[in-house]
Specification:
Blueprint (H helix, E strand, L loop, with lengths): L2 H4 L6 H40 L8 E2 L16 E5 L4 E3 L2 E2 L3 E4 L11 E3 L4 E4 L8 E5 L10 E6 L21 E3 L4 E4 L15 E7 L15 E2 L2 H4 L5 H4 L9
Antiparallel strand pairs: 1-2, 2-5, 3-4, 5-12, 6-11, 7-8, 7-10, 8-9, 9-12, 12-13
The structure holds zinc ion (ZN).
The site of zinc ion has 4 residues, from loops.
Length: about 250
């Protein structure tokens, strides 16, 4: 065995640079994940606190039919806006709407009312158990375009619907005025084995320009609800604060 092999190997400059670059890269990725995920962690803790005593945290809640300031939309349901537009639950997946958790907690299925946020035309596709979508011909903030309001999770874990009986599956373009009762919050996820925690998912969906709504699951097809509701619900601007209607 030669002596040279017994000497400790010194990192060569290129290797050092590579290690440094990796560390820096990892560090910035970790920072990015932290800033994205830490408000969500805070929101999760807050949701548990809210559900363990909704009456003690009434100042955290919004109310169905309430209008915040001069906002064009009414609040679509009661409860804590637990997760907002732009939250990231895991890398690569960005939340494209609001999750509002009713004060009855996870067991109070079908008790928290859901109302129309704005005048529009309600459609419920024949296969939709827990969801409906309302067409608004003139976006109140950009009247030259049409937008859609999507509401979901209004069924129990097996898919028994909590949508008002006047809007059965297959309903097409039924006019509903702002404030009309649409149904109640549920926990249906589409997978009967893993229901969501009871809440309303509400999002504002873009039109394809030819009168059809785009795929709601992609945040690029949705709009920041903040100016429509008069509440800061943009994750980037909200940080870990509580989104509530300011008097
Ligand atoms: Zn959601």
């Amino acid at each position: 065995m030669s002596l040279s092999l017994d000497r400790p190997r010194r990192p060569r400059p290129t290797r050092l640079a590579l290690i440094l670059a990796l560390l820096l890269g990892f560090g910035s990725l970790a920072y990015l994940l932290y800033t994205r995920l830490s408000p969500v962690a805070t929101r999760l803790v807050r949701l548990r606190q809210y559900w363990s005593g909704p009456l003690a945290h009434q100042d955290w809640a919004v109310h169905a039919g309430e209008r915040c300031g001069e906002a064009p939309f009414l609040m679509p349901t009661d409860g804590l806006i637990g997760f907002v537009w732009g939250d990231s639950f895991r890398p690569g997946k960005v939340h494209q709407g609001l999750d509002i958790f009713g004060p009855t907690g996870p067991d109070g299925l079908g008790e928290t009312p859901v109302v129309a946020a704005y005048d529009g035309y309600l459609t419920r596709l024949p296969t939709w158990r827990s969801a409906l979508i309302i067409r608004i011909p003139q976006d109140p903030l950009q009247p030259e375009r049409q937008i859609w309001l999507y509401y979901t999770h209004m069924a129990d874990s097996s898919g028994n619907s909590f949508i008002s009986p006047e809007f059965p599956p297959g309903t097409t373009q039924a006019f509903v005025p702002a404030g009309a009762l649409l149904g109640h919050q549920g926990n249906y996820s589409g997978d009967t084995d893993s229901p969501v925690g009871m809440h309303l998912h509400f999002s504002i969906v873009r039109d394809d320009g030819r009168g059809r709504f785009l795929d709601e699951r992609d945040i690029r097809n949705t709009l920041d609800p903040s100016p429509y509701l008069g509440v800061e619900v943009n994750a980037d601007r909200l940080g870990d604060r509580i989104p509530i209607c300011q008097p």
